[in-house]
Amino acid sequence: MYGVFSGPVGGFAPREHLCVGCLRCTTQYPEFVRILPNPARSSLGDSYFTPDRVDTVCYEARSGKVPVKGAGYRGPFGGSGWDGLWTDMSEIVRPTRDGIHGREFISTVIDIGAKPWRVTIADEQPSRRPPQLLSIPIPVLFDAPPAALLTDTVVRTLATAAEATETLVVLPVESLGKSAPRGRHIVPLITGAHLAALQQLGFEPAMLELAGWDQQLFAQVQAQFPRSIVCLRMDLPSTDALLRAWASGVRVFHLLANYHGRGSDGRFAIDLFREAHKALVAERCRDEGTILGGGGIIAAEHVPKAIICGCDGVSLDTPLLVALQAQFAGEAVRRETSSFKLPSRFTVDWGVMRITNLMASWRDQLLEVMGAMGLREVRRMRGEMGRAMFQTDLEREAFSEIAGYVS
Amino acid sequence: MSAKPESIEQIIAQKHIECLHRGFHVWPALEYGKPPAMGDSRWTADLILSTWMQAETGQPPSNGLEYRTGQSGGGFDVLHLKFLPPEHWLADDAAIDLSIPLNRRDYDRQIRIPVPFYGAGMSYGSISENVMLARAMAARKWDTFTCTGEGGYPESLVSYKDHVITQIATGMFGVREETIQCAPIIEFKYAQGAKPGLGGHLLGDKATTTVAQMRESVPWVSLFSPFPFHSVYSVEDHKKHIDWVKTINPAALVSVKVSTPTDIDMVTVGSYYAGAHIVQIDGSYGGTGAAPEIAKKNIAMPTELAIPRVHRYLVAEGIRDELVVMASGGLRTAHDIAKVIALGADGAILGTAELVALGCTRCSNCERGRGCPFGLTTTDPELQRLVEPEWGAARLSNLYQSFQSELRTILRQLGLQNIRDLRGRKDLLLYRGDVKAS
């Protein structure tokens, strides 16, 4: 019924691309038809970015739609990492009563920057300058791809897509040459070694990102771009370093796990994001700064989960490459060592369309999750761990009286 | 006088039906091995094929197919039943009672079903009328129930009304006074496990003119039920709903279908105090005709984790014996039913298992275009012909018989004479994360 056997010679030359895997043909004619899993598909991605995930991102990038399918869930029971966390829902609470597919408004805007707890007045003047804040309409920004992929086309694609979706893209400052795109949506990634490139930037970005902590560089960048937000990029786990940087005046942090969502100590991002968030909560300063989380966020559901675990927003890495139909060359674990093969030729317009579609799909899926939770703005989801259900906790509660259960 | 020649369409349909039925027979016999592309970790090829076999023979398979559990790596698939040593088993001819009451209060109508399960809500539109009829026929034969889902009440079901639960869901599709008046049980669907916090989805291709007429909507336009009930903001509003249907049909029992949020215990208690007789806990791994993939996997908890919480809370409140708790959402086998009862449910509600018995391969194409290529989750007139109601009813009846037989065997090997005595008996379960469950 899907036209697989509707070619001029029917089953002798099936149109395989039309197959939807329903198995009706093999059910009816077991002696003639055998449907096999496609070996090419099983080689997509890597051990973390599985073929199913690649498929999903490609569908989202192609269509811009929320994947909707019949039948129930087909995967394993819970799992490790993000899969071990379920989000809450409410039987009777909705952000509004107008329906998610109608007029219901759910805000996905987040603020990035320093948010002083209060304005103090001294000598009839505010003692501090106004908060340096920028807002982006989706809680997602784009992270820099591996250096080998920083071609002119890729840089332009990411920059244009970020501009189109009104978000930010982190790009190494050395990749922002004279012919590179300009604009406030571009976040130059800076090391001390590239100060000269920074001097020749030629535009005032909304945010700059330090590749690592350097007190002198921090002061220098603040002085050169007084109206820009300065963000600190840190590898996870980072609690102690984060608190030290906070004490030195940093208010925006970009905390990164590796591409598989693991910190340098092997723990998963869920625990590491929560740890960083709780550290600032314990210091009673969480609401005054911003945590952006990255690494291992490869599916739409990972965005709300990361936010529930304490991030204000997230950055994407490998999903952007998969949206551009990049193929993995082996395991992609760290940005510095991962290798991908992008299509030999693609246009910026095509790439921008794919990434824009991906963002549209992920935003709509974020709305589904928030709508189910009864939340009307994503800022209120941050750190709402009481609205998350952790598999380990639930299993302990449900099964601890059962013989053989070990937490 | 010779019979009127069949139309070419009928001949073609008959040919396909014969071939399909042959396939449902030969594949479980493993004449051609197992279909390499069939199954997933929840519904393995073994589970699908063994369900086909049970639907044909009324007995569990004896050819090595694993018919008890899947390979999801958690939940039911890592829970074992702790059987007694054979010398302590009850005799083969021991009377085993599988019946459960659907009203545990000492007022209102008393209904008892002879097996601890009934059919889940599946709407007209999400499945074909023939499949609805097959389910109703099987429900009548087994003196249990099936449920309309939220798509209305086809006229052909009226003669089975004593075994049909009328569902009232947020879209109120097809809800009419007369269908409420004729129903022995009214089910309020607050949420569905496969898409918790989201309304029903019927995509435009399946909203045919007849479906739209039943739902009083516009043909070929996607129908997204609102969420939640626009008239319910609290337990008190929920009680108002129950009062409303009790006014229309005072004799009806009231069931409340909810999903599994963190406060599922409170939701259940609230439903009890509002006057519900049955609470259906629909876990997140349940079936659907169409749902966002993100919802199926990530929103709300699986039923295995929700039922113990609900049971414990109701016990603590002292109301456990006044409320019937039915579990649904990913129950595939008789062993799953026994396990969920041991975790604290009174009984189970089956949906996907019934569709698999009718030939579903779990291909997940229910939502698209003409719908199911096996004629199950479709509104296409041609495809519907693939499931004749009588044939379907016989398959479902055989599945029920196999489940009944298995449940009796399980109880006998646990030393229990009564399924009601299994409720909440976690001590009869064994957790083995490292060993495939049995």
Record keyword descriptors for this entry.
heterodimer, A: 407 residues, alpha/beta, TIM Barrel, 2 domains, 8-stranded parallel sheet, two-stranded antiparallel ribbon, 13 helices, globular, B: 438 residues, 15 strands
As laid out across the biggest beta sheet of chain A, the strand order is 7-14-13-12-11-10-9-8
Q: What's the architecture of the largest domain in chain A in CATH terms?
A: Alpha-Beta Barrel
**Could you describe the largest sheet of chain A, including whether it forms a barrel?**
8 strands, parallel
What is the CATH superfamily classification of the largest domain in chain A?
A: Aldolase class I
Largest sheet strand order of chain B: 4-14-13-11-10-7-6-5
The separation of the N and C termini of chain A measures 49 Å
Strand content of chain B: 5-15%
Name of the CATH superfamily of the largest domain in chain B = Aldolase class I
**CATH class call of the largest domain in chain B:** Alpha Beta
